[in-house]
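The data layer described in this paper is built around a simple, fixed record for each protein. Such a record has a labelled line for the sequence and another for the backbone structure tokens. For reference, a complete record is included directly beneath this paragraph.
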Amino acid sequence: MTTVGQVDARVRKLSGTGQARAVRRQGLVPGIIYGGEATPQMCAVDAKFLNNELHHQGFFTKVFTMNLEGKPEQVMAKDVQLDPVTDFPLHVDFIRVNQNTKVTVAVPLQFINEEKSPGLKRGGVLTIVVRDLEINAPVNAIPEAVIVDLSGLEIHDSVHIDSIKFEAGVSAAHPERDYTLATISAPANEDAEASQASEASE
């Protein structure tokens, strides 16, 4: 379920490098709001607030009610430019959203039913290839995670995008790629025994 937060913002009337630096000296991060039928609007948000939110999981899937000097708007963070040395936010892009908006976002994968995987029960190792998956989803129905069911998987089996059961209205952003999300690898001792057997037969 989509999380909703609150953020206060100021209208920023001037652009340019010098103006952006002046905004940062006030403890703010310059930004812009775009999308929808309205024209793009320059803004500035509290630097400490943004830095704190940025380091919480799900920041880019969170809907914010932005109070832009008394005018509320529903927005999501689209991109954040970071300082290459300090990782502190330098600029933020927000997009306007509403209940009909569909967005492309990255959400974490959650692996379930490990105890129902014969391969894992035999000592196999779950090797996660992809930890976050880009999906298309309605803004009011972004899942907290994409569920990957490991039931029935044997050693050397793998999970691909086409095996994922998405919630209604949600789909993989790039289904044509169908890349591997995870595999069940053989335990180290089994690999060693197989290697020794191969060498002995040569």
Confidence is low (pLDDT under 50) at residues 194-200. Helices lie at 17-25, 47-54, 118-121, 188-201.
